[in-house]
Amino acid sequence: MRLTMRERKRVTAMIAPQYQRAQKMHKGIILNEFTELTGYTRCYASYVLRAHGKRVRVSEDTIIEGDVRKRANRKHKKTYGGNVKKALIKIWGII
Prior knowledge:
Layout: H1 5-21, H2 24-38, H3 42-51, E1 55-57, E2 63-65, H4 82-94
């Protein structure tokens, strides 16, 4: 029977600090046990363990902890206006 998402997050919170401090030789062992327990693939499991507890700045006053996939909003305005965009779409259709 698989673990629920809440149980996986608890297990991740317990194992991630050990994984982040471990040397490369021990990380493989920890990763094998973690993948067997959670059912994650090795690639995703290593990503989850590495990213757990990391801080990411979303804006000047907002920091998210543990979710490295969040990105800051675009700081630059769009380069092309409506007329240029229509012309580019036509060109892309031709190519």
